[in-house]
Amino acid sequence: MSGYKMISSDSHVVEPEDMWKERIASEYKERAPYLAREETTDQWYADGVKFGIVVAGTLAGQRFDDPTKLTFEGRYEDSLKGGFDPHAHVIDMDADSIAGGVLYPSVALDAYSIPDSGLLSAILSAYNDWLAEFCAPYPDRLKGITLLNVDEVGSAVEELERCAKMGLVGAAIPIKPGGHRYDHPIYTPLWAAAQDLRMPLSLHTGTFRWNKERGWQLKTQMADPVEQTNREYHVRNAMGAIILSGVFERFPKLRVGVVEFEIGWAPYFMNRLNDTYKDRPVGQTSYRFKEDMLPSDYFRRNVFISFQEDDFGVAMRHYIGVENLMWGSDYPHPESTFPRSKEIVERIMEGVPDEEARLIIRDNAAKLYGFG
């Protein structure tokens, strides 16, 4: 695998300090997210809600030097320039043997904690505009993923269509939406639009929508080691709702991905889906697939997984499907493989046939997101 560069299916930008102040819709100017310089960290606020810490772009590589210095605190002036400058981003990609990157946000992931739905939509729309401009200088190397507010599905579809026209290549939706679960028919227009536009949907870690019953759970999940260790619980619920309600049967070309949860949970989950569907009373009374298909068949056909360095999961690749796995560096976040991505990928791909390794670390992402 030394003869070709990699594609990161999960990299990140870091939203600049003035982005929302300059770009948010005029009716929300007075409520736009703003950065407060607090005693030990820079902190984002919107509508009185604290969200979005700056550490995301400040500690790349620290885990290799001294992990005891990893922290939730940080300053903008300490952030890697590549987080908010596309030219610097590409320079860092070259240094890390990365040919292309699929870009997710940092701060904007946390915006789902903001209660007001109209403000959230304005925040995400402004971010999507900025992201499209960020990618524009390097369209063959930088591919952006829009963020959608699915509180009102019709508006989410309109934003998906708008972002596709701007050249963004997929969309992230919250792992836990604020209202109905993803097996509810209210989401049918979104599945149809994503399929027709060929825009893969992503369930990225850290995307919990606020609602009045449960508030917001991301901060607990991020800060608590027990919650962090078991964070794939919520994405299993979301994906189970999609699969077991027959979404992929009705929309066979729809692709939905699980991003930044590693791989090892997936074989157990696939087996558990089948067990519930085939051998449990509740499975017998649920939606029944045509042509003797099993839930795991839809998982292999329609689901993709972006992972970072899961040796155990790679060993289970044939059960999941080699064509469904995509590596990502998570640049420039503290847990990222930057600047040692090539070294780490070579280690986790040791013993994997070259043709399979090429699919996982380059070709699967290239095909899904349109890299040359």
Short account of what is shown:
By secondary structure, this protein is of the alpha/beta class. It is built from 17 helices and 11 strands. It starts with 5 loop residues before the first strand and ends with a helix.
Specify the number of helices.
17
CA(first)-CA(last) distance: 18 Å
Query: In percent, how much strand structure appears in the residues?
Result: 5-15%
CATH class, anyone?
A: Alpha Beta
CATH topology: TIM Barrel
Largest sheet properties: 8 strands, parallel
What's the CATH architecture name? Alpha-Beta Barrel
Protein model, in words:
It is a single chain. The protein is an alpha/beta fold and 372 residues long. The protein is 40% helix and 14% strand. The chain has 17 helices and eleven strands. It has an eight-stranded parallel beta sheet with strand order 1-5-6-7-8-9-10-11. Strands 2-3-4 form a three-stranded antiparallel beta sheet, with no helix packed on it. Helix 5 packs parallel to helix 6 (188-197) and helix 9 packs across helix 11 (265-279). The longest helix has 19 residues, at 117-135. The protein is globular, with a radius of gyration of 20 Å. The protein starts with 5 loop residues before the first strand and ends with a helix.
SSE blueprint and pairings:
Elements: E1 6-12, H1 19-23, E2 34-37, E3 42-46, E4 49-53, H2 62-65, H3 86-95, E5 98-104, H4 117-135, E6 142-147, H5 153-165, E7 170-172, H6 188-197, E8 201-204, H7 218-223, H8 225-229, H9 232-244, H10 247-250, E9 256-259, H11 265-279, H12 281-284, H13 295-302, E10 303-307, H14 311-315, H15 317-320, E11 325-327, H16 341-348, H17 354-369
